[in-house]
Amino acid sequence: MKIVLIPCGATEWHAERRLLGRVELELSPSGTEACQSWIPALSELNLQRILHAPDNLATQTAATIARPLSIPTKACDDLREVDVGLWAGLTEAQLETRFATAHRELKDAPLNVAPPGGEKMTDATDRLTACLRKQTRRNGKGAVGVVLRPISFTMVHSALEGRELTDMWVGLRSIEHPITVDLPPKKTPAGTT
Question: What's the confidence (pLDDT) of residue 70?
C-alpha cells in the first residue's frame, strides 16, 4: 500500500520560516500554485482519497488537489498539527534565542521536546501514526493521500520509513513536494489465508 504524504500549501508564514503550529492560516497564491503543480504526478498514483486535518490550511490544500482528481477528502481530527504552544509564529532564530536548550534538542533528539504550553513530540507522533494505521486499514490496498502541516509531515515521514527523527530543522526545510511511502504488506497470521 502507498501513502502519499502531501505538505500543506504555503502560507505567508512559510516564506518567513515561522513555526505554524495550529494557527489558522490561509493558503497563499503561491501555495495554491504549488498544490496545482503536484496534480499531474498525483493523478498517476490512483489515490482513493485524501485525509487531512480539520484546519483551514489542510482543508484548502486537500480540496485544491482532490477537486481536479475527482476523489473524496476526509478530515481527521487526529491529523491536526503538533501543538507548539508558545512557539507558534516564532522563526528558528527567535526560538534559538529565546529557548536555546529546546532549539538544541530539536536538532539532537526532537522527540524528547515538549514545547511550553504545547504537546509532547512523542505524544504527537503516537497520535499521528495511530490515526494513519486506523485509516489505512479501512482503505484496503488503494493509495491514500495525507495532507500534513510541516512538523507533522516531518514526524510521520520518519516514522513511516522506520527512521529515527533527527534534526527537526533539516526536515522542516526539505518539505517541498509530496512524498510516496510504500508500506510493507500486512502479515497474515500463520494458519490463515
Answer: 96
